[in-house]
Amino acid sequence: MTMETIVPLTELVHYFNKRNRLARGATGEDEFGIVDGRVQARFRGRMLGTLFQPVVEQSGRVLGHEAYLQVLEGEGLGLPAQAVFLDARDDEELVHLDRVARTLHALNFLLEREQQGGWLSLNVHPQLIRAVRDHHGHVFETVLSRCGLTPERIVLELTDDGFESLPRLAGAIAEYRERGYRVAIDNFGRHSSDLERLETLAPDIVKLDRSLIGHAGHLSLAKRVMTDMSEELHGLGLTVVSQCIENPLQLQVARDAGADWLQGNLVGRPALNCLPVIRPRRPREAA
């Protein structure tokens, strides 16, 4: 890694540490640090890092990556990193942790030199939507600006259980989109598959729940369900993502069902580094 990378990153880490000390929900021990050329975040005795999982077209071309939180040290090592959020003492601390995680991922994304044209997908905790009343995306937009990123490079993933206030969630999505973010509804079909509700929410992308891709012995049913759902979602103008693809049969089901984008361990496991984003070649102009 070059000094041109390290110096600006060091300055960014210093800036965000200073900013975090003033944030509501922060504690004196919370801070970012650079370890072995990557950014880590300390939160309540844990050290957190970033993993990236690729999202690809049907052709296999990498379009972007989803960032996952990784527990590197402290309590919860080896457990799903989202369990960290269960220890938040109140809404303020949870909102702070959610923003720390997304800042951490953005900083590590800056180190990925082969991501020109690629986007970064980040999860937004449902409690943030409940706790933050308005101006969604404003605070994080200032984070991105410091990192030299724009909302157009970011996909924000939200879950919908079908029971939350529809106006509040739809309003948050509208505010995100007005700022230039793309919004994905994650795990569609797990709790709710209400297409009218989805149309009101008006996201850009829908990520189908892992239960829909099927398992061995049930793939023919999965194909019919996935095909019907993909057609309905495409009818609403939405991009469809089949995720949690673990084996070649599931991959074939997702392709046959017409999913636009693919994600899962068969496609690419979560890793420290992103896969290269290779832009398609433009046809040469006729002489």
Write a structural description.
The chain has 287 residues and is of the alpha/beta class. It is built from eight helices and ten strands. The protein has an eight-stranded mixed β-barrel with strand order 3-4-5-6-7-8-9-10, surrounded by four helices. α7 runs parallel beside α8 (248-257). The longest helix has 20 residues, at 91-110. Mean pLDDT is 87; it is low at 1-7.
Summarize the entry for a quick read.
The chain has 287 residues and is of the alpha/beta class. Helix content is 35%, strand content 22%.
Helix content: 25-40%
Straight-line distance between termini = 42 Å
Largest sheet, described in full?
8 strands, mixed, barrel
Assess the beta-strand content as a share of residues. Answer: 15-25%
Question: What's the number of extended β-strand segments?
Answer: 10
Shape verdict: globular
Over the alpha carbons, how many angstroms does the gyration radius reach?
Answer: 19 Å
Strand order of the largest sheet: 3-4-5-6-7-8-9-10
Produce the secondary structure layout:
Layout: H1 3-21, E1 31-35, E2 38-43, E3 46-57, E4 62-73, H2 91-110, E5 119-123, H3 126-131, H4 138-146, E6 154-159, H5 166-178, E7 182-188, H6 195-201, E8 205-208, H7 219-235, E9 239-242, H8 248-257, E10 261-262
Parallel strand pairs: 4-5, 5-6, 6-7, 7-8, 8-9, 9-10
Antiparallel strand pairs: 1-2, 2-3, 3-4, 3-10
Helix pairs in contact: 7-8
